[in-house]
Predict the 3D structure of the following.
Amino acid sequence: MEIHDVLESLRDGKISVPKARKLLSLYSIEKIEEFAQIDVGRKYRKGIPEVIFAERKQLDEVKKIVQKTLVKSDFVLVSRIPKQDYKKMLVFVKRNKFKIKSGKNTTTLLIYKKLKNTGGKIGIITAGTSDIGIAEEARLTCEAMSCSCICTYDVGIAGMHRMFPVIKKFIQEDVDVIIVAAGMEGALASVVSSLVDVPVIGLPTSVGYGYGEKGVAALASMLQSCSLGLSVVNIDNGIGAGAVAANIANRAKAARN
């Protein structure tokens, strides 16, 4: 029974307060053997789904967490799956008859039984093709949170003329927030923020070399931006950028409704 079903049953007098309390307690923490405690109620409490960081987990552990989570939830994000485990994970998902959304240049997966598309609208833009994987991670997070995304990639300031049709489209589509993924010096986030009247989430990526390599210059540039309305997440934190953007977009959609 989902949380809204519990609350409706309580309202209609079909269940008692102690029964409702017991049912709601099931949406707290789910322990899996001795290696994981998953926050199955997070999406109801925060609007952000459970995310499994798979990078340093054993494949069998990830599978058990996915199965347990999808008993209580309609979807789960699995981020940074090791490349040697990625195909095996796809086989596991199909064998269990779950649905799946993947992304270009990323091993992050959105595994689900059903998804809604009832949230806000988000624009996602990257400076270069090397930034796409991190942007796709953000997209999958936004879609897990019921948002629709308009994505345009490889429009950095090295050819700034490419950017203006994209910004025009974002304005025409009335996006609620924009995510800008950029490496090197990360200047695209400041430029985009200076042209729009919606919140912009700067997503620095670890693309770059030499002085300020591995995203350090991009992060510093975004943090010191002169353009107001720009917020910044950590280097390569596509999940974090998507979560913040989707929360903003969903609140905007709720306010309009």
Notes: The mean pLDDT is 87.
